[in-house]
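To whoever is on call:

I kicked off a structure prediction for a single chain this morning and the downstream step that reads the tokens threw a length-mismatch warning. I double-checked the sequence; it's 124 residues and nothing unusual in it as far as I can see. Pasting both halves so you can look.
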Amino acid sequence: QVQLLESGGGSVQRGGFLRLSCVVSGIPLSSFCAGWVRQNQGKDREGIAGIDVDGNTSLADSVKGRFIIFRDAPKNTHYLEMTNLKPDDTAMYYCAAGSCSNEGGIIHLHPRYWGQGTQVTVSS
């Protein structure tokens, strides 16, 4: 059984820092693409970060320069490190794993597995 378990969400003030973790079990994370998707109430889901099997990463313009995604293969875990958080970053954050395509340096994730989500709230 494949499971993705997120942690690290919480409430911070503008400019704050959070590191989200996604512990994966049941599949070797290094053989899959992975990423993070967020959804704020009433808005569409937004793919914000992806990492492919070669370790290439891409970020959405809305978080570029503030967020990074990286993977710890021995721990079968990937992370989303978020700095300089803004109120607009408030959302439920989901980690995902599956296949992906890399088009011009942009990683398009096609999720097969999802975590349950972790809430991030940024106050002004």
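Update from on-call: the warning came from a stale cache, not from the record. Cleared it. Sanity check on the structure: The radius of gyration is 13 Å.
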